[in-house]
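Discussion board: Methods & Data

I've been asked by a reviewer to show the raw model output for two of the constructs in my manuscript, not just the figures. I'm not sure how much to include, so I'm pasting the format here to get opinions. Each protein appears as its amino acid sequence followed by a line of discrete structure tokens. Is this the kind of thing reviewers expect to see in a supplement, or should I convert it first? Here is construct A:
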Amino acid sequence: MFEVTVRDHMMVAHSLRGEVFGPAQALHGATYVVDAAFARDGLDDDGIVLDIGRASEALHAVLADLTYRNLDDVESLAGTNTTTEVLAREIADRLAARVADGGLGVASSDLARIRVTLRETPNAWASYERAP
């Protein structure tokens, strides 16, 4: 299995519902380092998984829709606790939609998986993996 990973970051505001979140129930900011990994069984005719530049641009565009936003106000996340895990899934789903639309130059059937990892600190992160 071959894998290409691109990285970017985003800064958001949000609040989390539930006693388990303690002080994070109040509106607060978070900065995430975001890795998006694209995997496939074999390389294409050019010897790549996908174009790294296109993958970087797609990740940046997906994050631009969320960066500097209060996630409590983002329609696709309405009524959802925007935990790190939930955000990883949201970003993976948005990247998968871009693959399906041809925006990354590979077909969904060419990829085995997309994995998104959000690093909240150097010591804590969450990932979500899905089929493209």
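Construct B, same format:
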Amino acid sequence: MSRERVIERLARWQPGRRGFGGSADPAEAAAFRRAIRGDHDLNPGMTPPSTALRPAAVLVPLVDHTEGMSVLLTQRTAHLSAHAGQISFPGGRIEEDDQDAVAAALRETEEEVGLPPDRVSVVGRLDTYVTGTGFEITPIVGIVAPPVPISIDPFEVAEAFEVPLAFILDRRNHQRIERESGAHSRSYFVLPYQGRNIWGATAGILVNLAEALAD
């Protein structure tokens, strides 16, 4: 898929509402949460987080290689207190000093993998994604021209690697897994790639990316 087609399709994409930010009105909060993409999409009986959500932003970096685009992902280090060892996008919490979600995603990306903001052309955003751990994630899509200057923060990031966009766009690679959890069963997406299992919010956002870029 070309850079131009990605930009065109994201320009037509209507992302879900920015989402719940701690409304005091229970009915309004419930309506917001229903409008937001999240783990509960695949789990009708699962209640989204009822507390005020913590705003976060991630960058979905599309590396524009001549032979085809790829998505830059990271693997978190094993010692972190949250989501240790998981595959994720570069990103994190939106801080008070951040102008908006775009600024937060670019700042966190530079801190985690050393990619300067001026190397990223922001072309759109995907649906807000609410996690079961109470984060409200805004995924920002940016295109990066290679070569990509990578300098990872060894405290947070064990490895940075790329997955071909064609792999992500192929719906056959979106495996839906069901697992029993107590009296309930839970469904989630897994994208297995070269010995790695991409799951959780990262897989959900990648599936959303495939939806946004679909013919």
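Answer (T.O., handling editor elsewhere):
This is acceptable in a supplement if you add a one-line summary per construct. For B, something like: The first strand starts at residue 37 and ends at 38.
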